Amino acid sequence: MFPETKNIPLQKIEDTFLKEKEINLYVLRLDLVHPHISGNKWFKLKYNLEEAQKQGKNTLVTFGGAYSNHIIATAAAGNEFGFKTVGIIRGEELEASPLAPLRGRGEQSAVNPVLQFAESCGMELKFISREEYKKLRGNEPNYLITQLPNTYFLPEGGTNELAVKGCSEIVSLIDIPFDYICCAVGTGGTIAGIISSLKASQKAIGFSVLKGGEFLKTEIEKLVTSSVVEKQQFELNTNYHFGGYAKQTAELLSFISDFKSHHNLQLDFVYTGKMMFGIFDLIKKNYFEKGATVVAIHTGGLFQFANHQPSH
Ligand SMILES: *Cc1c(COP(=O)(O)O)cnc(C)c1O
């Protein structure tokens, strides 16, 4: 169903600071995989949509916040590969009434560019309160299944076993030898896939974008599918969350804008900007040995910088 991803650019970052520190830094441009099924979300959805098709399900149902990249990617993928999609969106500020009765398309118009885009892809939006959302989280809501027959459920953020399987293919896109691979961590599904396909000499560093993200370490360890990977081949860095999920500081924003002007590469402030800030800070602190090759994964998340016409 998903075409093979080939020739994903591995962009070398040229910088006098990196030269001084003798670090070879590359960025794997997964942000270029697809205009809307962007970055890591392509790999997370790939085997799930194949499984949905195998099970004869014609509707994808998932959850997310009003700015979720997973909602964008699921809406676009449904549109492209022929699934109906339903997005259950968190936030009583969007829709005052709780889930029952379910509100359908047309009764509530989309209120931000992400939700507008999702609707333009044909996604049916259902708004629920934060309280209700918390209860749904991670579970297949039975009462929804009866109301939405023939559906395939994708968990929040899209992380499940099949997502990890898809993300384990990311490492094979890197056609140079490397020592470290770095990735922003939200739920940990992406880095779990990456860790699952490392060689013994390679190390992965995840950068938590959540405040209090220490719990993610065990979550990730549970998701890793390879039994050969050693615990010390993976590290979760929790020092670069900048106040928490989607929080930003002037220092972070100025780093992102400098990075863009020096390397012509756009980062976002929710995920990749925090990771790259962390990588540069670790290099400054001589965390990596001289001569090391570091690959950073550009997981996408650039919706606000792109043009939003779905491909019908
Ligand atoms: C969703 C997302 C992540 C986090 O992926 P997880 O598998 O949830 O850890 C990282 N970067 C971007 C740009 C994302 O959209």
Q: Can you describe this structure?
A:
- With 312 residues, the chain is an alpha/beta fold.
- It has two domains: 10-37 and 161-305, Rossmann fold, CATH 3.40.50; 40-158, 3-Layer(aba) Sandwich (Rossmann fold), CATH 3.40.50.1100.
- Helices cover 34% and strands 16% of the residues.
- It is built from eleven helices and ten strands.
- Strand 8 (203-208), helix 9 (216-223) and strand 9 (234-237) form a beta-alpha-beta unit.
- Helix 2 packs across helix 3 (69-81), helix 2 crosses helix 7 and helix 7 packs across helix 8 (189-196).
- Residues 96-110 have low confidence and may be disordered.
- The structure holds pyridoxal-5'-phosphate.
- The site of pyridoxal-5'-phosphate (PLP) has 19 residues, from helix 2, helix 3, strand 7 and helix 8.
- Pyridoxal-5'-phosphate is lined by residues 39-41, 69-70, 157, 159, 184-190, 271-272, 299-301.
Task: Compose a concise summary of this entry.
The chain has 312 residues and is an alpha/beta fold. The chain has helices at residues 16-21, 40-54, 69-81, 113-120, 130-136, 142-147, 161-167, 189-196, 216-223, 250-263, 272-284; strands at 10-12, 24-28, 59-64, 84-90, 124-128, 151-153, 180-185, 203-208, 234-237, 293-297. Helix 2 crosses helix 3 (69-81).
Overall number of domains: 2
Tell me which CATH architecture of the largest domain applies here.
Answer: 3-Layer(aba) Sandwich
H-E order: EHEHEHEHEHHEHEHEHEHHE
CATH topology of the largest domain: Rossmann fold
Q: Tally of extended strands?
A: 10
* Ligand roster: pyridoxal-5'-phosphate
Oligomer state of the chains in this structure: single chain
Please tell me the overall pLDDT.
90
Q: Give the DSSP E fraction (strand runs of 2 or more residues).
A: 15-25%
Query: Rg to the nearest angstrom?
Result: 19 Å
Taken from the alpha-carbon principal axes, the silhouette is globular
Uncertain ranges = 96-110
Taking the alpha carbons of the first and last residues, their distance comes to 16 Å
Number of helices: 11
The CATH class assignment of the largest domain is Alpha Beta
Major beta-sheet overview: 6 strands, mixed
